Amino acid sequence: MEKNIVIFKNLHETYQTMDLPVSGIETNAEFTINNLKALHPQLPFKSIGFRPDYFSFLFVKNAKGQYTTDDVTFATEPGTIYFTNPGHFKSFEWYEIDEVYLITFSESFLRENVHPDIFREFPFLLAETVYPKVLKQADFAEFETLYRQIEKEYHAGSPYKNRIIGNFFVVLLLKIKEYFWNDYNPIYEGNRSSQIVKTFKRNLENHFRELVTGKVHQPLRVQDYADKQSLHVNYLSNVITSKTGKSVSTWIAEKTIAEARTLLQNASMSIKEVSNLLGFSEATHFSNYFKKHTAMSPADYRKQLLKS
C-alpha cells in the first residue's frame, strides 16, 4: 500500500480531486446522499487510493464493481450494503452502475441530529472492519424505502431537514445493526495494530463521555492513551497514524471540537461552562482553540445555529 495517501475531509473534495462531477454535492456538507450513476458518467472508473475523514454507507441496488478497505477487497454486486468509518484506506472501481446510493456523514452530524451519545447506542460505528452484506431482494427493499425517504427529505428544503433526516437515520442504523451486528465476531477485527486502533477509539469515546458528564475534569494527553494500553507513546502514535492517516493529537482535537459543537447547541449553557466541561482552564483558551479548528468563534457558531 502506498505511503502518504491523501485524506479527504468530505465527498465534494473526494470527487473533485478525482475529476468527477460535483455540481450536485454541497461543498462542506456534514451529510450527503447521492445516486452514483449521476456522478460517474464514464465507466469503467478506478479511483485513487485515499483515506476519507467521514463515515459512509453504500446501497447497491444494481451495479458491478469492487471496493478495497485497508488490505481487503470485496466484490460489489446487486444487493450489497457496506459501511466504512473515517481513517481507513479506501479505493473503488465501477464497471456498471444503474442505481447505487452513497450516504456520507460526519460525527458532528450524528451527534447533533441523531444521538449525542451515538457510539454508545451504535457501537458498530467504531468497528475496525465491518464486512459487507449481500441481501435478498426483499430485505434490500427495506433499506431502499429508508434511503429514498432520506433522499426526499434531503432535497425538500425544510428548515427542519437535518432533524427529520436524523430521525430516519435512527431507523436506518437500527436496521444496519439488525442485519450486520448480530453476526459480528471480534476475531475479524484483524491483527494487533487493528486492536490497538479499536481500543484507542473506544478509550477516546469513553473519556469524552466522562468529561462532558462531569465524572472527570482533566483531558487525557497522548501519553495517557498510550498508558491505558501499556504501550510506548511513540509506538501508539506510529500505529494510529499508519492505520488511520491521522495522528493521536488530531483524533483528540477533532473529538474535542465535535463535543464542543454538541454542547454549544444547549443555549442554557454558557461558553465558559462548555469550556470547563471540556477541561479548558480559561474560556478564552477554548474560544481560540475552537476558532483555530473551525474558523469561527463559539459565539459565532451559536449565531449560525440560530439562523439555521
Automatic annotation (TrEMBL):
Protein name according to UniProt: Helix-turn-helix domain-containing protein
Source organism, top-level taxon: Bacteria
Matching InterPro entries: Homeodomain-like_sf, HTH-like, HTH_AraC, Tscrpt_reg_AraC-type_HTH
Molecular function terms from GO: DNA-binding transcription factor activity; sequence-specific DNA binding
Pfam families on file: HTH_18 (PF12833)
Species whose genome carries this gene: Spirosoma endbachense
Record's keyword terms, sorted: DNA-binding, Transcription, Transcription regulation
Record bears the keyword Transcription regulation: yes
Residue ranges of domain HTH araC/xylS-type in the record: 206-304
